[in-house]
Amino acid sequence: MLRRFMDMGDPNSLVMRLRKRRSLHIKALIDRIHAEKGSCHILDLGGAARYWAIFDRDYLLARSCRVLVVNLYERGENDEIFTFANGDATNLSEYADRSFDLVHANSVVEHMGSWVAMEAFAREVRRLADRYYVQTPNFWFPLEPHFRMPFVHWLPFPVALHALKWKSRKKNPDLGEVARWLENNRTLNRAQLRFLFPDARIKTEWLMLMPKSLMAIRDTRD
Description:
- This protein is an alpha/beta fold.
- The chain folds into two domains: 2-143 and 185-218, Vaccinia Virus protein VP39 (Rossmann fold); 147-183, no CATH class.
- It contains seven helices and nine strands, in the order H-H-E-H-E-E-E-H-E-E-E-H-H-H-E-E.
- It has helices at residues 2-5, 14-37, 57-62, 115-128, 157-167, 175-183, 190-196; strands at 40-45, 65-71, 82-86, 100-106, 129-137, 143-144, 149-150, 201-207, 210-218.
- The strands form two sheets. It has a seven-stranded mixed β-sheet, with helices on both faces. The chain has a two-stranded antiparallel sheet with strand order 6-7.
- Helix 4 links the parallel strand 4 (100-106) and strand 5.
- Helix 5 (157-167) packs across helix 6 (175-183).
- The chain is globular.
- The relative contact order is 0.13.
């Protein structure tokens, strides 16, 4: 049941319906940029072309959107909308300040591995465009979305470590691998996101009266 709700390939799954709803915030930014410039140059940090299926392709073309997807590992085929490059989102010095109209990052900041890396990531997001959209799961939502386990992110590290080791027993990972999973999946609360993005509006997405995720949105009108 949980797998069906979390299925990224099913447009009717809960996770995809939530993404569609959140995409309205991104569309509002794209529409304003297009109205001002007649085009929209987007930097997608840590993303993938399949994510952008939540937008109608004709919509992106009509807004003259060009999306540069920067990722450590994943690549795709360049086309009239998408270009792909390898890069470290904590250090994008190859791109000048305000090189883009919009920086987009969906469920990326929590994978930086350390607080220092999160701060470096946030500095790059804020530097590279006047407008940005950063989404991340909310620490206070009881289900940890990466491990698909309730409450595990609320546990002390040694307890969470053994809980995940037990859950992954069929894959038989060693303790170091599980520890790296934990370190690279750190959900944030509102205060932490506000600290990282002090010039953004912080919006909460609610699901069944619980704070499902957080969005840091900066618009030049703010």
